[in-house]
Write a structure and sequence with these properties.
Elements: E1 2-7, E2 10-15, E3 18-22, E4 58-61, E5 82-84, H1 89-94, E6 100-102, E7 106-109, E8 112-118, H2 124-130, E9 134-139, E10 143-146, H3 155-163, E11 167-171, H4 187-196, E12 201-204, H5 216-222, E13 226-227, E14 234-236
Parallel strand pairs: 3-4, 4-5, 5-6, 10-11, 11-12, 12-13
Antiparallel strand pairs: 1-2, 1-14, 2-3, 7-8, 8-9, 9-10
Protein name: Metallo-beta-lactamase domain-containing protein
Organism: Halarchaeum grantii
GO molecular function, one term: hydrolase activity
Length: about 240
C-alpha cells in the first residue's frame, strides 16, 4: 500500500494495484487568494506542485473547499469515477463529471471497498459553517483510513476501532482563523491519533496553504512516531 503526497492533502494511494487520486488541488503557486480572516495573508498555493505520477483509476474527494478541489480539469477525465460525500454529488455533476458515485455508507471499486467516515472541520459554529466534509476508509488486502479535514472527536477513534486500519492519514497543519480553535488537527490531535492507532500514522496538509500554521518540523518535534512525507514523497505502508 503506497501513499504518495503530491502537496497539501493531494495524494495518490495505490492499493491492490488500484490507484486512487485524493483531493486534487493542482493550482499554480499564487493562483488563488489567501484564505480570509487568517493570520498569514499570502496567496495560495504557497509551494509548487512536485513532478509526481498522478495517473489514477478513480478519484476521492473529501470536500469541495478549494484547497481540496481546484484546477483538476487537466488531470481528471470527465468520465472518471469520482467518489464523494452525497451532499456534494450534484455539484460534481454540475462540473461536468459523468460518473459521480456518492458514498452513502460504502461502495465497491476494483475489489476495494470505500467506506465514508464522519469528520468535523473545526469546533462549534465554525464546524457547522465548514460542513459538509467526510473521510474515507479504503479496504482491500490492507486498509487505509483517510481522516480528511477533521479535528479529534469521538468518531475518529471510533473509525479506527471499527476498521482496524493498517495505516492512517491525518490532515494536520492546525489550520486557523484569526479567532477560534484550529479547524484541522494540531499537534495534540495528531498525538492522540498516534496513541490510539495500532499502525503507522502519516500527517499531511501542511506548508502549502496560508492558514495552516503548524509546520512539519514543529510536528516532528512535538509528536514521536508520526510519518511526515515531503511533497512528492511516497510512503509504503
Amino acid at each position: 500500500m503506497d501513499v504518495t503526497l503530491a502537496r497539501h492533502a493531494t495524494l495518490v494511494v495505490e492499493l491492490d494495484g488500484t490507484r486512487f487520486f485524493v483531493d486534487p488541488m493542482l493550482s499554480e503557486p499564487g493562483a488563488n487568494p489567501p484564505v480570509e480572516n487568517t493570520p498569514r495573508q499570502r496567496r495560495n498555493p504557497l509551494v509548487e506542485l512536485p513532478n509526481v505520477d498522478l495517473e489514477h483509476d478513480a478519484v476521492l474527494v473529501t470536500h469541495r473547499h478549494t484547497d481540496h478541489w481546484d484546477a483538476w480539469a487537466d488531470a481528471i477525465d470527465d468520465d472518471t469515477p469520482v467518489f464523494c460525500n452525497p451532499a456534494e454529488a450534484d455539484a460534481f455533476r454540475e462540473d461536468g463529471l459523468t460518473d459521480v458515485r456518492p458514498v452513502a455508507d460504502a461502495e465497491a471499486f476494483d475489489g476495494v471497498t470505500i467506506h465514508r467516515t464522519p469528520a468535523r472541520h473545526g469546533h462549534g459554529d465554525t464546524a457547522e459553517a465548514m460542513a459538509p466534509v467526510c473521510g474515507f476508509v479504503l479496504e482491500g488486502a490492507e486498509t487505509l483510513y483517510l481522516a480528511g479535514d477533521t479535528v479529534w472527536y469521538d468518531p475518529v477513534p471510533e473509525a479506527i476501532d471499527a476498521h482496524d486500519p493498517d495505516g492512517v492519514v491525518v490532515n494536520a497543519g492546525a489550520a486557523q482563523f484569526v479567532d477560534g480553535d484550529p479547524i484541522t488537527m494540531d499537534a495534540a490531535d495528531v498525538r492522540r491519533v498516534v496513541g490510539h492507532a495500532d499502525c503507522p500514522v502519516v500527517a499531511v496538509h501542511m506548508e502549502a496553504i496560508n492558514h495552516c500554521l503548524l509546520e512539519r518540523d514543529d510536528l516532528r518535534e512535538a509528536v514521536d512516531d508520526v510519518l511526515l512525507p515531503a511533497d512528492g514523497e511516497t510512503v509504503t505502508l
